[in-house]
Fold each of these.
Amino acid sequence: MSLIELLKSDQPGKRVVLLGNYAIARGAIEAGVDVVTGYPGTPSSEALETLGALSRELGFYAELSVNEKVATEVAAGAAFVGMNSFVTMKHVGVNVAADFLNTLNLSGVGEGSYVIYVADDVGAWVSQNEQDTRVFANFLHIPCLSAYNPQSAKELVIEAFKISKEFSIPVILRTTERVSHASGVVTFGKLPKKEKRTFEFKKNLEQYYLGDVYAQRLHKELHEKLEKIKELSNNKNYHIINEGNSEVLLIGDGVAIMYAIEALERLGLTDKVSVLGLTIVNPLPEKLIIEFAKKAKVIGIVEEVEPYLEKEVASILHRHSISDVKIYGRFTGHLPWYSELGVDKAEEFLLDILKDTSIEVEHTRVKRLDENLPKIVEAAKRTAAPRYLSFCPGCPHLGTFYALKKALLLERVNIKKVPVNLDIGCYGLSPFSNVRLGDTSFCMGSGITLTQGMSLGVKDEKSTPVVGLIGDSTFFHAGLTGTANAIWNNHPILMIVVDNRTTAMTGHQPHPGVEYRLDGTPTKPLDITKIVKSMGYEFVEVVDPYDINSSVEAIKKAIRFIKENNKPAVIIARRACGLIVPKEEPYRIDPNKCTGCRTCIVTFGCQALQWNKDTGKAEIRAELCRGCGMCAHICPYNAIER
Amino acid sequence: MLKDLLNILITGVGGQGNVTMARILATAAAFAGYDVLVGELYGSAQRGGSVTSHVRIGKKVLTPMIPKHSADAVIALEMNESLRVADYLKRNATIVLNEYMIYPPEVLRGEASYPSKDEIVSVLKGLTDKVYVVPATDIAIKQLGNAMVGNTILLGFFLSVFDTGINYEHVAEALKVTIKPKYLDLNLKALDVGRELAQKYA
């Protein structure tokens, strides 16, 4: 049974191994979702993708919205007419959506329901920062639930819909990658019966007109709702609880508190320490926290990213005049301010805070390490060859960057001085590739706009034009405004749209530039070339990155145009991601022609190009080669052929 | 018999099918009656970087990431990658290495060196006697005509040399729900090839 068949099967009680994101998608289906919107972002993407694949058959609507702000707004409109809406995004998507969410909290969600699923990338494995959505939810006055494994994530999606409906308020489900990108055993619930419903907008200006006289009253009502949800959150059934009546209490949420519970087991302390693992983290269950804190002398707060619970618990204790308790966490230097926790760090934390208590620990931890182990591990790490991320075989971006570098050099631009601004997407890997081009990377859409600012100051012939790159999905998400700015204010930049016909880095979702939507239905793609031309750009050229020589010529022409006219130019490097087109017959290197000069390996560096120590020549690994043929353009001896 | 907790690492280079292999093993474990959690250390759509899957199976599994010095076994789809996870391994862990090397760009540019097979094995032997080197990708290409089923050969081998409490039937059942139907027979064949190879080591 395929994943899609599995996820739509109505078999309550069935146990399956599911990725957290699939469990979350299943939760939305079990909750009776009507409308799904979102923008992909690791570690959240599979939830949106799966719901898109299931939507038509199961009778709900799903779209990939152009960005997170649009996604939250479309979903809210649907909720206002009575539909159950579900929005998905990664943590930084909340920044984009925040403008709208900071008003939706006031209006509420009408007679529908509204759940936003946000996956935080703790450790910034595939993101520009570590950002804590719990803090954002608290600031937005939006209730926030926190999941600790795939099963809990599924259940909490359903709970979030219930809370949203009951109180007419948006609700956030916050996970981290250790929930969303972990696979675990999940038990299915029932699928809802699909009834034919009709929807209507019940006009109510005082609820939906934000501003003027209404905003203050809505603000008051929002806090009244939150007070009621706070009462609800005191229900112990929501949380993971071990009422040990111990002098030591651990408070935490998400996978962080699970690390601590596992650490307690490993140290043989399960019965000796009380635990309050929270699944509702905004508003916090104040009564419950007080009830537990009163019995404790030491409270350890186990959480990831920000000291959110640590601050809030301290404030709650202060309000209730509880002062004879010590709180340990980030502020006391017991937990790191960056990266993920894990069982190891939780163990260290516990051993640290237990020093001040009467609880004795048998140091089982020490037994795991014998004298020689650190030396052997050190030797292994030293022996291992380093391996960073690189472009996949067949990646058109590698061709684009190679051509850009060559064109800059041929036009006598100083590679060491000319700024090249990257953006969010696979092309951001360029500085780590053999081409080694690229100087900045910040957030969606910022590459081309930073470029404009730089062009105000960088004027000398050898350091210009300043270059900004943007991906196709990113162009629609946050690049349109920056593109308009460059032409209207006439910044003489070289803008390169790397159009690989998909949202590649998050797992190949569509975007407004392609012929199909999230649910697979055909649509008319937006043409980036026409958009840019209609804005008034005079130099717009489309190149094929696989055709490296022609790409070099076009970029050279663009550079000259910018310098001669002091106007911006646009290159659109268009070629589908090598992973979404069928693999073609691999290329091979003729050993009689290969001189072992290493040009292909050193200046280009596709993963399929490997070195044969025995022959002293380059070779192509057939099982890795995608058959793109770019390397054939690079070889000075025409040794690469098919 | 079901174990209390087993920690198994699958490590390799992005694009080698590491995540699929973890899913097969986890699904088989669930069929055998285990609780399961799988985590990935580094995971994204692109290829070429180091990727490690943490497969945790047991009567009750709390978190998806294996603590340091706690892995009972590692399957390395690429030889060099086994070294990088040495700090996760218990003493006497079982190590199954695919005799397959992908030289990273740093090595190809001559900025770093790639260890020889003997160097890798000798370092790992410091940790455990149970180091197995299996030319799985090579056999997959030569005998079965598809490099990707090298992983299934390794899995068959691994399950024969390491007692997980998971039966062959559970694995075959897991392959049915995780592999595209047209590749099922090939994978079942690869599983057998791996099991037969393990007999030679016994």
Amino acid sequence: MTGLINWFSQIISVTAFGFQSLPKRLGSSLTAMLGIAGVVAVMVAVLSIAQGIMQTMENSASVDNVVVLRSGATSEMMSGLSGDEARYISEGPGLVRNDSGAIASPELFVIINLLKKTTRTDANVPLRGVGPAAFEIRDSFKIAEGRMFEWGLNEVIVGVGARMEFEGLELGSTIPVGQEEWPVVGVFEAGGGLAETEIWVDSAVLQPAYRRGNSYQTVYAKLESPDSFPEFKDALTSDPRLNVKPMRESEFYSSQSEMLYNLITGLGTLVAVVMGFGAVFGALNTMYTTVSARTREIATLRALGFHSGPVVISVLSESLLLALAGGIIGATAAWAVFDGFRAATVNMASFSQVAFAFDVSANLLVRGILFALIIGFIGGLFPAIRAARQPVATALREL
Amino acid sequence: MTDKVPNLVHINNVDKVFKRGSEEIHVLGGLDLEIPEGEFLALMGPSGSGKSTLLNLIGGLDRPSQGSVEVGGEQVGQLSDRRLAAWRARHVGLVFQFYNLMPVLTAQKNVELPLLLTHLSRSERKKRAAIALDIVGLSHRKNHFPRTLSGGEQQRVGIARAIVTDPTLLLCDEPTGDLDRKSGDEILDLLQALNREQGKTIVMVTHDIHAAARASRTLYLNKGQLSTEPVD
Ligand SMILES: Nc1ncnc2c1ncn2[C@@H]1O[C@H](COP(=O)(O)OP(=O)(O)O)[C@@H](O)[C@H]1O
Ligand SMILES: [Mg+2]
């Protein structure tokens, strides 16, 4: 028992000496700390991109919405449904119905070229032809400025995200559709979801403009409840007139973003690990310097009878403290600068632009700080072991 | 009781070899030494002759390559690192040429340091450190940091730290080597008093004939062996 207390008080005092003499080693300590802060900031920022994209996708999805594509199609671009097929789908069981029939919106999905504001390069922007039910299906839909388009007229409304990202989407400007120029009459919000990156128009005017006859690409529909999905799905997949793949909206969006999420997360992790190596060397260097600056002190303590365990712990905890400070600084900086920062990237599934906000979540901050601590641990471990291994008599001579 | 004082330190046929790369440095060879309890022994010899090495062996800071070092009945060379550290803390007081005080601690806290290795309470530690500082005549400077003290004062703090655990053996490696004559004399007075009044056994390495004159016996180290006469 006294042994333990003894051990503990040794650790505390040896560590305290280290911390008290920290100001003398401020320069190299700050360098290591800022190095770690930089790594953590980059890591958190990059991973927050992936997180933000996921968040956008999640915001887009509603639990009682379904999306129906042609079977085999992995994106809306690749899908195709005839007018008849769209009608059979909307007759499926389990959908919400009102006087005018099921809440189902057969939609057309085409890509137009617009200039991206930041890079001034061409980018693919989705132009979606929708039916009246589209607004009941996306229940967070709201006109933010201007007005709704008139059914049957060549006019469009644009998502807030799209307007922010691309040139020429201000109210009153026009966009090129085929040979024509269609006016922008309104700007809409969709609860931060994917639709905010799109341009919407009446599907009935988009079909002739793109010579689609009476065909569509997808049907979006609203279920009576999330539990109605199996019934709806079974009915459609067993219908001999149809060859389609019904998915919950959440499932559809996560399949759309999975590739991108994995790519960015993988890249982010790679960058963090590579930079992390650099930071480990920085920390190692600092802690070796610290250990040699503390040689006299450590050797004296050990000569007086202090164990080497507390010496190791002291050096390690100093390194961990620097890393913790660096981690907190880096994570906080990433959060302050990037959280909510809006950007756009290419959705790998449709090759169209996805606007999203960096999402620096608490979970990411914790991961960033943990990463910093790992760097600090590795950076402190070897110098600590060296300090402890050195024979006392030799260490005393080095003064 | 016989008139022969028991020996505190027995060193028997000790070799000490350092390896530096592939080179072997034979510092001590077949060295014998007996130090009776209560002696004040001065060790002299040319620089690099192995005085510090010998002192380190006695103090359990290092182990002999060959032979036995027995201090207070303990075979010092055979203890594990951990037990050796505990043994040093209990039985040996070390005084260094450059004092080796902790710059971030006050004189009082520096002196308390070795007591952290005991199970004494905080207030008991404080009390003992105060007594040790009083013995070296530095009570009035107990809250001063080392950098605000003169060399002589710092060495007195060093001595207080060495005696605070009440060890039997004081090992001093050139304790006056970095001091002017006057401060050096004060330190020697102090060591002499500790030897005479408190019965401390002292081994002091020195270059200074003057300092050695304060000891009860002087031995000269040369070519790995001890002798009673200086060898040229
Ligand atoms: N830990 C060590 N490693 C290698 N060589 C050492 C070590 N300690 C002492 N020596 C060598 O042993 C010799 C004696 O050193 P030392 O005992 O310090 O001499 P002194 O104290 O008499 O000046 C020197 O040549 C020194 O270089
Ligand atoms: Mg020496």
Amino acid sequence: MGHTDGPPQSVRPAGADSAPVLPSPVLSVRTLTKRFPGVVANDGISLDFHAGETHVLLGENGAGKSTLIGMLAGMLRPDAGEILVQGSPVRILTPRQSLDLGIGTVFQHMLLVPSLSVIENLMLGGPWWQRLARGAAYRRFAELSECLGISLDPDLPVGHLSLGQQQQVEILRALWRDTRVLILDEPTSMLTPQGVRDLSAVLCRLCSQGVAIVLVTHKLAEAYDLGDRVSVLRQGRLVGGIAADEHRGMTEAQMTDQVIAMMFDPAHAPMADERAILLGRGNVHAPSVRRGAAPCLEVRNISTMPRTAAHGLQGVSFDLRPGEVLGIAGVDGNGQKQLAEVIAGQRAPSSGTVLVGGKDVTQGDVAARRNAGIRYVTDDRLGEGTVGSLSVAINLLLKNVGAEPFWHRGIADWARIRQAARDDIQRHDIRTRSEQTLLAKLSGGNIQKVLLARELGKAEGDVKVIVFSKPTHGLDLHNAQLAHRRIRESAAAGRGIVLLSTDLDELLTLSDRIGVLFQGRLVGIVDNGPGAGAAIGRLMTGAVAA
Amino acid sequence: MLTQPFLVALLFGAVTAGVPLLLAGMGEQISEKAGVLNIGIEGMMLLGAYCGFVAAYYSGSFALGFLAGGLGGMAVASLVALLCVRLGLNQIVIGIALTLGAEGLTALLHHFQFSRTYPRLDEAPVLALPLLADLPILGPALFAHNPLVYVSVALVAFLGWAFRHTYAGLNLEAAGVKPAALDAAGISVVGTRIGAVLATGFLAGVGGAYLANVGAGLFVPFMTHGAGFIGIVLAMLARGKPLWVLIGAALFGLSLALTTALQVAGINIPTDIVQMLPFALIMLVLVVFARHSVLPAALGLPYERGER
Ligand SMILES: Nc1ncnc2c1ncn2[C@@H]1O[C@H](COP(=O)(O)OP(=O)(O)OP(=O)(O)O)[C@@H](O)[C@H]1O
Ligand SMILES: [Mg+2]
């Protein structure tokens, strides 16, 4: 597709452009195939990864991206096909072999030991008979966090960190050793725009040093800015790609059109007018607050004890009116999780009150809050959101197990449960073999869909307030859009929505007002509209903190 | 009753009774840290006791006896490694089977070897620590023991250090809490766990050999009397800290010694009640402290790469 003659219009930093593209790829896969019971997760995939190039892998949820990466990282064994390093075939049977070949990987779901400190997690993997080389590790840590603009206490247990901070640790770990090939599976799903910029700068530098980078993302803007080459997977097959020279000559809109056409079934293809969201550039949602109505949620002067890793809340107050979407922005670890948990009743505040529809519910536990009409969608889909060893059907009902109409006096009505699950699977486009599949077998994005389906789907009970924490992380374009539409519908139906997100575009797309949490304080609430993005950016750095 | 000889005998007995518990508890702690619930430790102690006794009896060397005891324990542990760690079979079922198997095997072997006689070893060698051994009461009670006693206590300090300051310590922790993270870091989870289980077997076996050769001076079938199970309790309550195993072992050792001392002193309490003391103590300790025990997240779960 001859765009090669046009002038380069990309905004990529210079380093990546001038990097020499070596003729022989550092890493290639040939007709790589991986089957799981009932699905062919990778079906004869052949790809080349070149030194000094960022190769972006795109594809809808369940397309097989993580499976491909699992095979390169030695976590999964291919059923057929081969992997070549610098032209010669290798067998990667263990993660050790992958590391020894110079392949470093950031996995989609955190692989960190919660009871060990940040620095200990980074040191993991040394020869067992040796003393820990702490001194050297601290130096490397300081050096890398400087590059990445990360400020983390290396001695904190990882279990005390927010998921966004854990993602930073994962990135540090992949960069820890010098690698020839750096694989990142959705490394930015929990990062703030600034975090993404810092990471991008590091990736560009590595690229110019000749590292081959493989990047999985659902954000097309990232694919365009960072990628030299794009490959698209669909249902386990390689369905297309954009070569490096071709990519260089394209505008963002051209690339987006091509990629979307490759990524989705025509049936699912997103509407043209929604391209702004797909681009990750976001259109600004016009505010429509019902200022007259009585607030459905009032948070008064809430404070919590500081946890070691995260700031405690300090006197946070706001009102939420029916039909309103209140976005909460801020770098992860500034009190987002505390705020969500206090509203949901999972954490007792040290002072302050929470009122739902004018009624004080501060003392109530999770069940009492649910009865009062509060729903909470956690960002920790694997840890607290779902149970991997149970079926999709049960996970879709997790908070109502034992209740009518699916259980009658403690006896499960399986036909009904399965039917309801099949309906949800259909409605939310969940890619699973059947409703009885164990949840852990689903792809990351599809697990997120199950979580959202459960909380957004049935309007059982009288729901007044829904708290979403990073609701679309890991969702592909189409499903993120679907989720956005459902969240807006939910608001239109008169519910109040609290939307915690690190994705500024998402906040600007959905919110009526956007508050910023900085070091545990709500430093400001901005009405959404022109200029809101810049104002929030300033608040997020604490620049105008009260 | 609190005469000097009584106190010395009581404390001396507490050390003698406590050392096998200490070794078993430290051993179990290593396995549990790595995510393996090693119920078969009682069997490891018993085979260790038998092998240790036989080796010491024929060679006349206590050191060889301890070594043979450790190897005997490792023999049972290698079955745990194969069946539970490699093949992923249920750790509780296998552990109970191995304990029962070791009980039967040692009774049988003992019967073939010695029929109904119970030959005794010579007095175990004693190393009196210079200066310390001259203290009143404490000297003869705590500082005039078989060298293995000091080695065991030194091991507490060493393990405490190694858990925090070596890569092996990190590996154990990761294998027990999040094995996939260890695997992704390029360290074999199965290998780490096998190493841990074998170390457990060795320590438990040495503990058994000490029980037979030093504590009793002879081998009697079933002689461990639940020492391995007490070790499991100690490890669970110690939350991964070897020092707490030492404290627990001292406590149980004291209660076991008190049992003997009361009988020797001729206090008029039915012996059955006195012998229940240590086990009543376990119950009490469990009721009071068990809710605080924090076990590794992946304890008892076999690991298979790529399974999710
Ligand atoms: N261990 C497993 N057992 C069974 N099925 C699996 C397993 N791992 C992956 N699958 C299936 O393979 C397919 C591809 O999954 P994969 O995780 O590679 O998708 P993905 O492209 O990374 O999606 P996402 O964007 O949602 O992360 C899915 O249908 C998934 O259900
Ligand atoms: Mg994935």
Amino acid sequence: MGLLCSKSRHYTEADTEENAQAAEIERRIEQETKAEKHIQKLLLLGAGESGKSTIFKQIKLLFQTGFDEAELKSYVSVIDANIYQTIKILYDGSKEFAQNADSSKYVLSSENKVIGEKLSEIGSKLDYPRLNRELAEEIGNLWKDSAIQETYARGNELQVPDCTNYFMENLQRLSDANYVPTKEDVLYARVRTTGVVEIQFSPVRENKKSGEVYRLFDVGGQRNERRKWIHLFEGVTAVIFCAAINEYDQTLFKDEQKNRMMETKELFDWVLKQPCFEKTSFMLFLNKFDIFESKVLTVPLNVCEWFKDYQPVSTGKQEIEHAYEYIKKKFEELYFQSTAPDRVDRVFKVYRTTALNQKVVKKTFKLVDETLRRRNLFEAGLL
Amino acid sequence: MASCSAVHGGCPSDYVAVSIAIFSMILLLVRSSFPFLIHNVPSAKGSAFWIPAIQVIASFNFLLGIVMAGNFVKYKKNHWWLSCYVWAVWVEGPLGFGLLMSCRIAQAFHLYYAFVKRRLPPIRSHFFLPLIVLPWIAGSAIVQVKKPLNYRCHLGTFWIIVAICLHTSYIVVLVIFTGAIRHIEFRFDELKDLWQGILVSASLIGLWASAYILNEVHDDIPWLQVTSRFLLLTTASILVLVFFSISISQPLLTQIGFIKREPLEFKTMRQALGIPDSGLLLRRDQAVVIDPNEPLDKLLTDKKFRQSFMAFADSCLAGESVHFFEEVHELGKIPIDDSVRRIYMARHIINKYIIAGAAMEVNISHRSRQAILNTTDITHPDLFSDALNELIQLMKTNLAKDYWSSLYFINLKDETRARSNGHEMEQMSGGYSYSPRLSCVQAMDDPFHHDHDHDHFSCDSSQDVHDPYP
């Protein structure tokens, strides 16, 4: 109030001191607003299991102090839980398939059945026992059973997490008494996020001048969690939308009739149309490219309704590239369909990512950072 | 007086009747929306909202149909939509009385399934309601085709008997359903409302039949016509008001009185059902040492810890899991043989946490959800165990670690220390909302915002988010 008043008054000697004070306050407020403006809010959005939390962990590893030993050790129970839950899903799945199928390829050998029942029992309890050599061996044997492998091949019909193969291959190491998870183990560990988590970080650039401060928010992707997203939509600089492109043949955790890719499509459409995001930049991360690579050559894209007009042209690496470009084009089409004409100048970029690969994430984030910086300068009228 | 006519309406009694009808409609609207507006109760979703809403609309149609077709006011019937058939047959029938009775039958059906068969109704209300209204629509179609109405909008004797049969048959169906559940000791006014509804609708039909008979027998007596239609409209208005009840779909709201500023007597289902408060096994002055190494589900049984943890979870927008834990814990305290209370609590939990799109829907797998919704015994003690296990896992992996380093836990430790030292318990205002998970959130319409016990969480609505300094 005082500032406004002082501007219109005549300057007298008694006023000069006040003016100096007022100027100082004004300068400080300006500084603070500038500092606040530099906190860029980034939201990680996407359907369940699209890789948001993995990207979040990667950013933590890249730009913060990373994981200390205590935090790494805290993931042991998570990894154990993942293993027990996965083997239980596979075992229960094999029983289900055995009931419906005519052939006996889903029927386990009798000793493996015993192991399976025991593990299923463990998997349904609240507290999981720590993985030891004995259990690891039993799980390993069950995993190698052909019935379980056949069930795993049909894993897209069950809710088999993507980390299954990795953990099953490493059972020996994971069951060690003094096991401390590696960074890679932590990245593979699957935790369903509920609520909202945030971190604040400042990407250190080549010239070491700390530039903008980013505040990154990670959310849960399941349907009930999406109700909560709306609380975060105010003042967002950029939305990083994660879409797992390997999910075109899988169904949802929450609604086992719905195809995951269709769900992602609808979700992306919904997010784009949000009124708060008029000036928000959109970074689309087409994630899980590594799994996509191995899947697209065996499972055709047209099993998903959205991709039904896809025509494969070749084989091998060329085919993978072709399929990827097709999906990218589909998302771009969707973006332009859902964007009103007055918003068409907001930034939209598509990135190919494998969230588990730190190099890829680092490079991708650098590009994102550059884009946002350029956008800032553009907004400030300096470009 | 000159314009007053038995045939064309316009008598003072007609105007009085119409104003009574309008008044009762207004009263009905007030009564239906009162709990939501005055006491800021969040509006229900799904059938708990739609069935009362459809009842209000059907009541309106019913009264409107009677007014338009009953020769109360003079108007030129030159448009097709002002014709007798539209009002007397369609609006009053399937869209009015038929819909009204069908709503009640649907509600009685839900109660029957919940309390007698102990499961959730197999047919969702979206299908059940149109199904029951179908006979009315068929009947109206037949009448439309045969066109038996005379110029005064009256049916012939044969048709009137058919119409009265249809009306009474619905009342009979409602009586049957109500009879099937009359032995249940409901905690709220459900049964009373059903009997009331039956009584009033039966008396209305009785009045209608007698009025009609008198009219037909003494066709030429004008005052009979005028009085009979006056009585018909007024009884219909009273019916519509008395018939409406929210006890069946929203039992807790029946506690709300019409006097303003009267606080909700029972805020939660737990209080309404009389379940004792939890966590009071330990005496107040005994210090409860919170040991982070104990399993989370044991720690959560202590009330103080649970409240602190709940406040923390609410601040990270993950509170529904803890609320679910609390309510399932309360369900566990109801004795196994008290099935009525168990059913109330279980239904309440399902409507609030399990149904897709519920206010505080929890993050459980599709299989767990379907297992709960398709259960054959809603009173089973382990109904929610799987879901609870999943959610405790979720809480452990997401919230537990961050909670130990949050200010909420520090406050809790200070409180217990203060208590164990014999000091008076300081009111820890807990104004700092610092948590390592989330610094602040724009929570204009926060579904996890609860006014009881813990911190009132407010956030400034500026563009950027500030880090409050601890």
